[in-house]
Design brief:
two-stranded antiparallel sheet, alpha+beta, 9-stranded antiparallel sheet, 186 residues, Jelly Rolls
C-alpha cells in the first residue's frame, strides 16, 4: 500500500496520513511532486533484463521523456544479499538535493522518500507500480530499509545520472525508518 504522511519538520510524531491514491497524488502535487501509477505493456519475468523492462513501460517512459526532456533511463535493483547494501542505505539516508529531477518508478519492492519542503516533511511510501518525480533542488532523503528489495526505472535529464549535494543536516535521524514507518501503518 502506498502512503503519504505529512509532518511538521520539528515534530516527527505528529503526522497526517493519507493512503488513498488520489489524496496522495493531490497533496504531493501542491509541492510540485509528480506521483503516478504505471502498468506494464506485457507480463515481466522476475529475471527480466533492462531492455525487456524498459520495453514493457515504453509508453509511459516515452511520455515522460517528451514532457521533461529526459536524456537517459536505466533500471537499478538492490536485494538483501548485496554486499554494499548498508553503505548505499547510509548514503541515501543523508539529506541532499539534486540539480536534476529524481524520478523513480518501482517495478518491484518499495522504498520511503522523505521530502523536506519549507517547514514540512512529506514521507512517501512508494511500492510496486508507483512513480515519484522529486523536482530539482528539493531537499530529501531515501530509506530503502535494512534489507532492501526493489527494482526501479530511473530517468535523468543529464547524462551524468545521480549526483547529490548533501546538506549536512541530521534531520533524517529524527524520522521513522522504512521498517518503523511500515509497522506504524499496520
Amino acid at each position: 500500500m502506498s502512503a503519504l504522511t505529512v509532518y511538521p519538520d520539528n515534530q516527527p510524531k505528529l503526522g497526517e496520513i493519507f493512503t488513498e491514491f488520489s489524496a496522495i497524488q493531490n497533496r504531493l502535487n501542491t509541492i510540485g511532486v509528480q506521483f503516478e501509477r504505471w502498468t506494464a505493456n506485457c507480463e515481466l519475468a522476475a529475471d527480466a533484463d533492462q531492455d525487456t523492462v524498459l520495453a514493457a513501460y515504453s509508453d509511459s517512459i516515452d511520455r515522460l521523456k517528451q514532457q521533461y526532456s529526459f536524456q537517459s533511463v536505466d533500471v537499478i535493483s538492490l536485494n538483501p544479499d548485496h554486499p554494499d547494501k548498508a553503505a548505499f542505505r547510509q548514503k541515501f539516508l543523508a539529506e541532499h538535493i539534486h540539480a536534476d529531477f529524481e524520478v523513480r518508478f518501482f517495478i518491484e519492492g518499495r522504498g520511503l522518500f522523505y521530502l523536506h519542503v519549507d517547514d514540512k516533511v512529506y514521507a512517501v511510501l512508494c511500492e510496486q507500480g508507483d512513480l515519484i518525480s522529486v523536482p530539482a533542488d528539493t531537499t530529501h532523503w531515501f530509506d530503502m530499509g535494512e534489507n532492501p528489495r526493489f527494482k526501479c526505472i530511473r530517468l535523468f535529464t543529464t547524462p551524468d545520472g545521480w549526483i547529490a549535494d548533501f546538506t549536512g543536516s541530521d534531520i533524517a535521524k529524527s524520522f521513522p525508518t522504512l521498517e518503523q514507518y511500515v509497522a506504524e501503518l499496520s
